[in-house]
Amino acid sequence: MTRPRIYLDANVFIAAYETLGARSDHAWWLLDAIEGGELLGVTSELTLAEVLVRPIEEQDDGLVRSYQDVVSPADCLEVPAVTRQILVEAATLRSMRRSLRLPDAIHVASARLNGCSHIISDDRRLPFAPGLELVRLGPHVLSTIRTTSR
Q1: What phi and psi, each to the nearest 5 degrees, are found at residue 6?
Q2: Domain range for residue 114?
Q3: Domain count across the chain
Q4: pLDDT above 70 covers what percent of the chain?
């Protein structure tokens, strides 16, 4: 059986590394499933720029290094570049939904063009991901992916 390709929005990494409690646990369950080979993770290089802002601002060099390590290509995580094709797709998505912010459109376009079936996000402002199963980060994130990937 082919592993589901799931796209991780930047807020999944932020939840794992910068929060405590249930929200962090839900993100770690997902990251552990990716590292364990159950799922194939995909996230854009844009994610790195988004997650680094606060640690750089607060001069948290340890967290900067952690993010640079985790948001890197690996056997279980693809980190495609933001290409011209992705930017054109993002513009097309924004033309269909003008309220879609450019970073969100780039994430959705990256997921679509990299063959993902799901996009995992904790961003309530991301209501629009045509062709993708939009899954909110929460206690049922893994069961939802497993159920909708069959």
Answers
A1: -120, 140
A2: 5-148
A3: 1
A4: 99
